[in-house]
Amino acid sequence: MAVIPDIAPTTRTDLLHDLRDSVDGLADELVARIVSAEQDYADASLLTPEQLRSACRDNLASMLANLDGTAPVRLESARAAGRMKAEQGVSLAALLHAFRLGGRLIWEELTARSDGHASQWLLDMAAQVWALVDVYSDAAADAYREAADTRAREDAEASRRLVRTLFANHALNPAGVADAVRAFRIPERGAFLVVSVGDSASCPSADVLRSGLRGVGIESVWDTEVDGRIGLLWASSESALESALEAALGEIGAGPVGVSRGFGRPGGIGEAVEQARQSRRCALDGAGVATRYDSVPVPLLVIRQPDAGQLAARQVLGPLLALPADEQHNLLTTLEAWFAARGSTTAAAAKLHYHRNTVLYRLRRIQDLTGRDFSDPVHAAELYVGLCAHRLLGAGRE
């Protein structure tokens, strides 16, 4: 059997130099193969054909220079390709496939230009080509991951800035607010609410809240505050928003929840944020219970005028607040239940699990201490204001 002679050294050198001289044509061919084989490259709207060709040419030229012995392994082009593909949204798998396609192209060209002689030199060159492809692929992959991590951090930080802008004073940064509205795809018209959620061990993360609300037809954006979370919620209609919100309240957690008035355009966000925060300050703890801004006029008045509220609590409840803690707690809890029951001693007793006579006794005790007659509407109103101020502000506590 005849042995095919090895390619002469000068022929090897000429062959590799000829490949290097053809690098522009090879780059064009490689671009065509990559785009045909990888949909990621065809779909990447940010990656231009010129950028792809430049990356292909640079890496082919670098690899061929190493193969012909005129240059050491230089991985700058591979790293640059990895960074660019991460920034342009091309997947890592597609990037690595492109390097394999480049290695295959080099090998096919070497085989074709050696007239098909399966010489030992050509077999050795195959090993060098694929080893070099591995080295370049690894460098590109490392640069890709670093760039992807950096981009993720930057995107997360940019998202946080947009969220903060959305819930901040809109008059201070109208352009930033417009950017945030576009970024979160908030419609120009719709049914909107802002919800303020008090912090508690059971309060879900912003991602969980957003996912849960989306499951009942509500889109949302959430921000974390020192004492809880604030969220913008929207849906196609007021009825859809209200019904979905009611269904989702139980998932929000055990802390107090305040809800703003509804509004129809993103321009109402700033005012609604303050309304939701104030409503939450008027709320009592309890899962699935929300305090609506329009439903608590007296508590809102108290928290907006805290000095006057504290004064009212001292003037109305003064002697009661001087009692020992246990007795004070019992009387105030009974007073609160009586107001919640709309003046029904029977309903208040049922709520507290007391005998009705116990409730009557405690109400008479409150009347004796404060000098306020429950049958007098003015006196009853004063007791309600004093109770609200004490509950919300801690007024009169020693």
Automatic annotation (TrEMBL):
Residues 24-158 form the RsbT co-antagonist protein RsbRD N-terminal domain. InterPro entries: CdaR-like_regulators, PucR_C-HTH_dom, PucR_C-HTH_sf, RsbRD_N_dom. It holds the Pfam family HTH_30. Residues 331-387 form the PucR C-terminal helix-turn-helix domain. It comes from the Bacteria. This is PucR family transcriptional regulator. It comes from Rhodococcus daqingensis. The lineage of its organism: Bacteria, Bacillati, Actinomycetota, Actinomycetes, Mycobacteriales.
